[in-house]
Write a structure and sequence with these properties.
The chain is of the alpha+beta class. It has 5 domains: 7-205, Beta Polymerase, domain 2 (2-Layer Sandwich); 211-362, Nucleotidyltransferases  domain 2 (Four Helix Bundle (Hemerythrin (Met), subunit A)), CATH 1.20.120.330; 366-449 and 478-495, Hydrophobic Seed Protein (Orthogonal Bundle), CATH 1.10.110; 518-679, no CATH class; 723-951, no CATH class. Helix content is 58%, strand content 10%. The protein is built from 42 helices and 14 strands. The strands form 3 sheets. The chain has an 8-stranded antiparallel beta sheet with strand order 7-8-10-9-13-14-12-11, sandwiched between helices. It has a 4-stranded mixed beta sheet with strand order 3-2-1-4, with helices on both faces. Strands 5-6 form a two-stranded antiparallel ribbon. A hairpin with a 7-residue loop joins strand 11 and strand 12. Helix 9 packs antiparallel against helix 10, helix 25 (552-561) crosses helix 27 and helix 29 packs across helix 31. The radius of gyration is 34 Å and the shape is globular. 44% of the residues are buried. GO terms for molecular function: [protein-PII] uridylyltransferase activity; phosphoric diester hydrolase activity. This is Bifunctional uridylyltransferase/uridylyl-removing enzyme. Residues 516-632 form the HD domain. Its cofactor is Mg(2+). Its EC number is 2.7.7.59, 3.1.4.-.
Amino acid sequence: MPTDPDPLTSVNDMRRHLRTALTEAEVDGVVPRDVAVGLFRRHLGRYQGDIREAFEARRIKGAVAAKHLAGLADGLIECLCLHARSAVGQNDPLQNSSLDAPFVVAATGGYGRGLLAPFSDIDLLFLTQDEPGDDIIRLVEYILYFLWDLGLRVGHATRSISQCIAEADSDTTVRTTLLDARLLWGDSRLFAMFEARFILACIDAGAPRFIHDKREERHQRHLRFGESPYLVEPNVKEGRGALRDLQTLYWMCRYTFGARHVSDLMAPGFATFGLLTDHEAVRARRAWDFLWTVRLHLHYVAGRAEERLTFDMQPVVGARMGYTHHGRQAGVERFMRHYFLTVREVMRLTHVLEPAVLRRALGPVQNSAPPDAVMQNEGFTLIDDKVLPIRADAFEKDPILMLELLRWSRIRHCPIHPLAMQQLIRWERGAGALRDDPTASELFLDLLCGPPPLQELAAASSAEPAAQRTFGEHRDDDSTRVLRILNETGIMGRLLPDWSRIVGQMQFDTYHIFTVDEHTIEAVRLMHCLEHGTMADEIPVAYELARDLQSRRALYMAVVMHDIAKGRGGDHSEIGSELAMDVCPRLGLNGEETETVSWLVLHHLLLSHTAFQRDIDDPKTILDLADIIQSPERLRLLLLLTIVDMRAVSPRVWNAWKATLLRELYTRVAEVLEGGLATTERDLRVAHAKDGVAELLEADDFVPRDIEHFLRLGYAGYWLSFDQDTHHRHARLIRDSEARHAPLTVECMPVPLRGVTEMTIYTTDHAGLFSHIAGALAVAGASIVDARVHTLTNGMALDTFWIQDAMGEAFTEPQQLARLGHLVEQTLAGRINLTQEIAKNTRALYARRMRAIHVPPRVVVDNRASNSYTVIEVNGRDRPGLLHDVTDAMNGESLQIGSAHVTTYGMRAVDVFYVRDLFGLKITDERRLRDIRQRILTVLRDAEERIVPEGLARESMIA
């Protein structure tokens, strides 16, 4: 790579050329303002373009480019100040000016550190000795308006030295900004006076207060921008592990060790303080350069001060930085993994550097509570209520003490001391020696699973009062704190080498909001919540199952292993299952536990796939599932794994409707596995359903003729699809509709406990009915999550749709329900043009960042999933009108839809239809099936092209 040019060379060139141009443009000793603005704009644009070209050609890195941009701004402002002083002085014919008073223009904030992103604010301090005179105010205004006319963003303050000191004393943000103040133009003696007084004020205020304020500020910032550093659309400036965290460390060091001595945290000279090892310093500089490079690319691509690495930006920035497709991994995923590994490095740097700064600023601390004798004998103590090894070289000499430290932290329900975290990170390589150590394996499994809930409660009740309070406050944190520490320090990857391959691994979609490692840790946390009953009200069946687990270790290991093979290509369930057979015995699990883990990993998507994409009222669905699971214990474990896996994806993925479907599926499979009523006894179940509803109708004063009429209407599939209360409600709806001779009856009933609104439609059956109803609901902003379509013996259709609003909740307001019914009626009457109404807002609905997600259309035909139906699975971009378009295509192929099951995974929709031909038979002709598949694919591709034009689709796939 060519040697980086000296930024000052180009700055001096610009100063010289600009001064020459201004001199040549003088008319009677004066440069007209509009002429001056034009000259400054041309010079600024030229040199900004040179820096951008060098950066995008990868001749200079991000931090170097930022220094060039800051140097360019320095030269520009110096020339502007000279020009402005001359221009303002020309306006005072008597030359009775206050411009001779001491005055300084200084850079502050990030610009003061000599770093500037392309579209960031230029922070300026206009410093005076006393209150500024009118001419100084005019000078400041001239400079500011001139900079704004150049299109620059300027942050500014005009203060005297005393005002600066007072503001800094009352506001840590101002103090931080002034910490990096740098003279640009003006009276050097005034600026030196300011520096001297500011340093004295900082010494008087003391480092402890400043550090406390910066740590609290960082905590609040993390809460605002995402506590997890592994969010898939991170903020590269303000997020956890991002640039601001590195800058916070810099401010702490600069304040603690002296403002004159720590000019650059990432400069090689910083190593002389002995706070970082050479290896740590190199990694810190790499992180600094990488984050600045990402940030500059973001600014240049967006054309504004964009700090969020959104989905549409990720493939573009990744491609600009050279990340291309490699093996089975897309370039964008390689780029984002590097990003997440970098932010983890920043967090590790924080754990290493901050304790040293705190020790220097706060001095040694005393033991707040003496540890018990056993703890002390094992080599640990408590300092400031935090666990710490007694010896500084403990982990170097005996790596297993790293796990013992975490065990004591859990036992005493107190955090790890910062110095201990520092040592864990510095000696994490030693954990590799523990891979086949039986004691280490036992400790790891104990830390992963924790004590059973009853045992933990008993321990807490017998503990000291302080420990009881801590346990109550931090019980939820204890369930994941250990795993997070193991992951952040790198010890987890040393113990389980396969784990290191999923650290920072992301999937380029809107469904998974965390990286794979963070998702897995969240799943473990949720499993602890299930065991402790903190989610009992939400998922009572899961709590009942989790209270008496017979295979705790196997289940927790399955949670750890279920996604460990992602990013390797192929089926991650199959690969993960094979890995489990190798990893689990190494960790001390017996043969039965290992087989259970392997089976759970292999089938961890089985229940969710069946519940949301198959008709669970179809007997074959239940029988096939029971044949795979075979064991009630495996069914219980699989349900728990399914729940925590789904909940750990995103808070919005789980809802009451999905909980209901999983519970019903579990109950039906458990009934078969436990020898209850067999699903094959279809006639008996139909007769039982009819007898039950007949009793309800008699109690409701139905006359025998109406009862008999209703019982003759439904085919067997109808009686097996609903419970008795629903049959009763349908009977009333049909009786009332026929009494009124109504051509159409629509009934909407909210079911809040299930998180859906149930819409029942009774009307004359005709071709395209499902498609028209689906279109009407799309216009209403409703999402169909499930549907049952029944044609009765009288030729009428009794269709049931379960729908949700945009937030995944039930429609409950009367006006909402009335509008739903009205739109269906208007659509079936032909008064609404569905194509126009759906198209009107579809494209506007998707921001560019969402259109960047590539969702390839896919249609799968399965004739084995059901004995009575052909099952068609449609994968495509989720959008309003998707169901309408697909079912309209099916209508064009003369298909009858028996049921539809809709699931969304971020931007991807998976719609499954159980269909027959016009004669009520499965479609078996291969040519016919190909035609059906091709017709649906054409509909999906045409719609995708309307939403994502070909050019944007190519752009999103660059990497």
